[in-house]
Design a protein that fits this description.
Blueprint lengths: L1 H30 L1 H4 L37 H37 L1 H15 L3 H12 L3 H28 L2 H8 L4 H37 L11 H10 L6 H28 L5
Length: 283
């Protein structure tokens, strides 16, 4: 039994470090994109359109992962696309976490009319179909990076609020909360010093998952041309372009799709690994 637990813990640790390593690579690539990209991602060369990756016949060594139908370097566009993906993930994930987790903590800990108001607000907000709601928001305020971030925050804060509310209620019923009240601590002091540290592992998991969801949402909106300018490289936009020529130039679709998949998977696995590592109950 002990050997089995050690094996599970070892595998969880391996997933954690592999996910963190991939995300660290994506972050470094995004920060150093102008220095790492071999070409200008917007530069077109119709005479070099649909060149295959370097290992295939007819490739040009200057274009490591080939070119798209307009002769733009696929590798450079993936590198610059990471900037948009990470910007959306970090900004929208953080704002969503702050709003949703704060409301969830207040509703779950204080109960009463505070819980009633916040819970009704969550129910009303979740009645709107999220995809249609996001498309409607962007159609009203116009496409752009800020519009995407706003749409994600407006839609997804309920995810944090519901889960954190339930966890705060569970923690509020624990004996250590009753002991803190007997010791004379104020309600806000108990909330921030006792409840929040025990809810924090759940918040961390939700935050990393939300970042992965934000990357997917940005890719979907780019796919349907509701993101930033279609000229600037985004992973979703590249997938949309590659879909039209997948039989002639499969690399235009496959490479950004694999990058998107690995990034979203890494966010998910990182959250689970951090929960296993820092959750005091599991430890």
């Amino acid at each position: 039994m002990a050997d089995g637990r050690m094996e599970v813990r070892r595998r969880a640790g391996l997933r954690l470090w592999l996910s963190a390593a991939w995300l660290a690579v994506v972050v470094v690539v995004a920060l150093l994109a102008p220095h790492l990209a071999p070409k200008n991602p917007l530069e077109q060369d119709l005479f070099s359109g649909r060149l295959p990756p370097f290992w295939q016949h007819g490739a040009d060594p200057a274009f490591v992962l080939g070119t798209d139908s307009l002769g733009r370097d696929v590798l450079s566009r993936i590198i610059f696309g990471s900037r948009i993906a990470l910007s959306v993930a970090l900004i929208s994930g953080t704002l969503t976490c702050l709003i949703g987790a704060s409301l969830g903590l207040l509703a779950g800990f204080f109960r009463g009319w505070v819980d009633l108001v916040i819970s009704r607000l969550i129910d009303i907000w979740m009645a709107f179909p999220p995809v249609l709601f996001s498309i409607l928001l962007i159609a009203v305020i116009g496409p752009g990076l800020g519009s995407i971030i706003l749409a994600i925050v407006v839609i997804d804060w309920t995810r944090f609020a519901r889960v954190v509310r339930a966890e705060a209620m569970a923690q509020g019923a624990m004996d250590y909360i009753a002991s803190a009240r007997v010791a004379g601590r104020g309600r806000m002091g108990i909330l921030w010093r006792e409840v929040l540290p025990n809810v924090l592992p759940i918040i961390v998991v939700l935050l990393t998952l939300e970042m992965g969801i934000a990357v997917i949402v940005e890719a979907i909106l780019s796919f349907v041309n509701l993101s930033i300018s279609t000229d600037f490289p985004t992973w979703g936009g590249m997938i949309s372009e590659g879909r039209a020529s997948v039989h002639q130039a499969w690399w235009v679709l496959v490479f950004p799709l694999v990058t998107l998949f690995l990034t979203v998977l890494s966010f998910s696995q990182l959250g689970e690994g951090l929960k296993d590592r820092f959750d005091p109950v599991l430890r």
